[in-house]
Structures are given as structure tokens and as C-alpha cells.
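User: Could you walk me through two proteins back to back? I'd like the raw sequence and the C-alpha cells for each, with a short line separating them so I can tell where one ends and the next begins.

Assistant: Of course. Protein one, sequence then structure:
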Amino acid sequence: MSQNLDDLLEFHWMMDMLQTVDVGIVVLDKNFSVQVWNGFMESHSGLLPSEVREKSLFDLFPAIKKDWFMKKAKPVFELKTRAFMTWEQRPYLFKFPNYRPITGSESYMYQNITLSPLTSATGNVDYISMMIYDMTDVAVGKKQLEALQVSVSEAQELKRTL
């Protein structure tokens, strides 16, 4: 009985951690129906887990290009490999407003996404996890650095012509 209680307590704190971590966590089945939707996703989307569970990701977020996303997810399901989407390739997957006070210059949250296979005890991949990282601070910093480099380059060119 003690082992069952320990297992239950461990499960409880693990679930609490998944809900409070500052990373979006979504679990999708092979039909791309949402199975898990953590607190980060709830907070940024305004959608409760009960509102998204068992619903198609593409119905919930029609702006996500279905063919493109399915192509990205296919090797995750079939080859059991990870797939990555960076903010430099595509600024965001979920068009969440930017709530960061320091980087308030951007309207939307820049995101990096990792798709990972969730292998069952039988070795099958029936689910994948999607982790959504807020990269807005990094993106804003890089954009500011690039703008500064252009300004310096233009100033150097102007100095040469004078």
C-alpha cells in the first residue's frame, strides 16, 4: 500500500510541475487531437484544457498549415526522431500575444518548437509531445543587433565617401 501511495504522490508532483513549468507542453495523438494542454498553453491561449482535449489542433488553430505541420510530425511518429521549428524559420506556430514587459516592442511571442516521440511500452509511437519555448527576448535582441550592425556599416560607408 505504501508503494501505491508513494507512486500517487510522485505522479501528483510531476503533474504539478508540468502545469507550472514556463514552457508550453502539448501532447497530440496520431490524429493530431490534443491530449495534454499545460498551464503555459492555457495562460497564453486563453483556452482551458477541458476546451481543447480531444479536439483537432487544426480546428483549434486554423492558421497552422495542416500539410506543413503533418510533414514535420511524420518522422517523429514513424522514425521516432525529434523535429525542430525555430523562430528564425517561422516566428511562431501559435499566434500568442507578447506579454513580456521588457520586449513589449513585438506584438507576438516568438517561439521555438520541439516535437518529440512518446514511445509506449510496446515500442510504438502513438503520441508526440510538442514543447513551445518563448524566444521573444532572444529574437528582439538579435533584431536589435542586426539593426545596429546595419547602422554601423552605413556610417562607415558614409565616412569613406566624405
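----
Protein two, same layout:
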Amino acid sequence: MYAVIRTGGKQYLVSPGEKLKIETTAHENGNIEFSDILAVSGEAGKFESDLTGAKVLASVVGEGRGEKILVFKLKRKKQYKKMQGHRQNFVEVKINEILVNGKSFKEEAAK
């Protein structure tokens, strides 16, 4: 069971019980609801045709900042150098449930 969601200008392939880091998003009481669903598959190789009302429910695990990325610009022979760092904020979420066409898919119990 998996779904393809779009958030923060990126697309993610998610399944129930999976943790992933997304760009900072507003959330209430530690819960996030993704309603921009691009595809849902209940069985291998079969996709749901009607995605109206489909949503993915997730809970916030933590927040933080990513690794530092250094941006260095140089123009030879012009005495121009510029160094800049950047750390992107993120929210780590755990996918709890995928809802589509009245069906609910949750994480399967550990065997």
C-alpha cells in the first residue's frame, strides 16, 4: 500500500508506518493532513482511479534543520569571493493512515 503526495514543491512516495523529512509545514497538535494526492495503490500494479476525498494522515515526530550547504562564488582575477551557508528547516513526520474511497489503510502489526 502506498501513495504519492505533493508537499513543499516536491513529491514523496509514502506508505503507512514510514518516517520522512519534509519542508516545514503548518501543523495542529502534532497532526498533518495531506490532501494533494497524486496516486494511490492498494495492490501491486493497480492504481485507484477515483482520488476525490483521498487524504494521508501523519503525525509530527520532530523538527530540525538539515546539514549545512556551503555556497562559494569566485571570479578569477577580479578579487571577488563570496561564501555563504544555508541550513534548510524540516519537519519529520510519520505516516499513520491513507484514506481513499472510504477505505482506510493503516500500518500492519509487526509479525
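Strands lie at 2-7, 10-14, 19-23, 31-34, 37-41, 55-65, 69-75, 80-86, 89-100, 103-106.

Let me know if you want the two compared in more detail.
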